[in-house]
Amino acid sequence: MSARARRTSFPEVVIERDSDTEKSSDDEEEVEDDVVESDDQEEEDDNEEQKGKEAEVSSAANKKGKAPITISLKKVCKVCKRTGHQAGFQGPTYIDCPMKPCFLCKLPGHTTVNCPHRVAMEFGVIPAYRKRTNNSLDYVFERQVRHRVPSIKPEFVIPDEVNCAVIRYHSRRVTCLEFHPTNNNILLSGDKKGQLGVWDFGKVHEKTVYGNIHSCLLNNMKFSPANDGTVYAASSDGTMSCTDLETGLSTPLMDLNPNGWQGPNSWTMLYGMDLNAEKGLVLVADNFGFLHLVDTRSNSQKGNSILIHKKGTKVVGLHCNPFQPDLLLSCGNDHFARIWDIRRLEAESCLQSLPHKRVVNSAYFSPISGSKIVTTSIDNRIRVWDSIFGNLETPSREIVHSHDFNRHLTPFRAEWDPKDPSESLVVVGRYISENYNGLALHPIDFIDISTGQLVAEVMDPNITTITPVNKLHPRDDVLASGSSRSLFIWRPKEKSEMVQEKDERKIVVCDRKNSKFGDDDDDSGDDFSSKKGKNGKSKSKKPILVTTPCSSSKKKKKKS
DNA sequence: AGTCGATGCTCCC
DNA sequence: TGGGAGCCCTCGAC
């Protein structure tokens, strides 16, 4: 009996067989066959479904006539390409490849299922503890800053229910969000195509998208502190723009590719951006490690560009300290976050380098006192420095959290709650899914960065996509999320109910072409609620969200 | 329901 | 340092 004939535990498809007596002369193949057999034994023991396929082709190149080609269907792990196990979704639960390090904490020896960081997110985190250096900066902190940070933590208010949304607001994935500084209902959103959305979520059906400002990824935007009708934006097309929100008219303040496309080695993209209101400066950083300053009064570049990160690497984040705007925090792909003094900016003049193990997606000073730093790195760790006046050699805390890099997703950024006086609440989307009543959902996490504890995980059975872009409202208990091409507004449950009393929850489906309901004004669509969970496990889904009419909308006409 | 492809980015050699 | 291989929980179209 040949080896192939004995293989009975999985389906076999013989495409062509010339002669049963012909055997492959290739020794290596013989060995492989043996390996396969032992794997088969495991499969029988496991008694699992056979999925995947492996084509075994006997070369028989030295023989005349046709070679036998046997394709056997058996399970192959798509991660490590070995047999005997399989990674992937089994229903709503993702099974990791046991041959790889933990997908969550990146350590070997276990998978995410029993990773201690998944069981308890605060695992291994040292609760609030400030390293005292007893130097003069510590003294300054005690005198000037400490009283701004209350020692008693207020109760966190979590916006945990979808209040309104526009499905497919953008034609490409959302890259950034920004709330209007004075108008509570205006949300700005940028997308991968460079389009800028202006959404008044008080009037859900009204949708404005400016498509002619940038030609690719809108990476960051900020409102002008001098004029809240004006917004600055940095894009991968190499331009930094200043746009009037009323008219949509845009002025390019900087174009780093004035000669157009000259090849990938010279094409400059703008990523990190922030404003220094005191000095009237826009700070932007590019993909070659340089920082550029633009004077908003003269609309011209100020000084020379300065290399602030390793030459040739992206600088993805810039943040001016809210308390001392001359302090600048940058982060980038050279695995560093850096603190700078804008008054003394030159290459290698940074006050402090904060090393990370991998690329740093974001680095922010705390929003009120500016004395803390939170960074998000693609090594699946949120790092916290409790005081920029203290010892910055090592972070005060490292919180393991799933926010891996994926080329199809906007990079995750942990964002402060600007309303939290204790400066300890942070919001960040989660990459890996969890099984919630038979649905694989990717929640949005609220984390207390002083303890590493998961304060809340916010999800909706209808949002099955990953939500990497999140922004908390500067004044209201509102969370804005960008998930794929859609925008969501969350409010706390009780408040949501109050709002609904006078105006029902509003979910609008955009994109005429892809929606069978056709019209933005059409209120009958259930595209949102009909979305399936992972692996089509939609049976146990609670249909809590439906497309409801906007009662205040005057445009109530049905298409015949 | 299952497959496929668009593709940017990281990191290793 | 440059080039290129490879990429584990995408997402949406067909």
Automatic annotation (TrEMBL):
Keywords annotated in UniProt: DNA damage, DNA repair, DNA-binding, Metal-binding, Nucleus, Repeat, Ubl conjugation pathway, WD repeat, Zinc, Zinc-finger
Chain intervals for the UniProt region annotation (Disordered): 1-64, 510-560
Gene3D superfamilies: YVTN repeat-like/Quinoprotein amine dehydrogenase
Location within or outside the cell: Nucleus
Keyword ATP-binding: no
GO BP annotations, alphabetical order: DNA repair; response to UV; response to UV-B
Pfam families: WD40
InterPro entries noted in UniProt: DDB2, WD40/YVTN_repeat-like_dom_sf, WD40_repeat_dom_sf, WD40_rpt
Molecular function GO terms recorded: damaged DNA binding; zinc ion binding
A GO CC term attached to the entry: Cul4-RING E3 ubiquitin ligase complex
Positions with biased composition (Basic residues): 531-542
Biased composition annotated in UniProt, kind: Basic and acidic residues: 14-24
WD repeats (start-end): 167-200, 353-386
Acidic residues composition bias: residue spans: 25-48
Coiled-coil ranges (or none): none
Keyword field contains Repeat: yes
PANTHER family given in the database record: DAMAGE-SPECIFIC DNA BINDING PROTEIN 2, DNA DAMAGE-BINDING PROTEIN 2
Family label: Belongs to the WD repeat DDB2/WDR76 family.
Protein name: UV-damaged DNA-binding protein 2
Native organism: Lactuca sativa
Lineage: Eukaryota, Viridiplantae, Streptophyta, Embryophyta, Tracheophyta
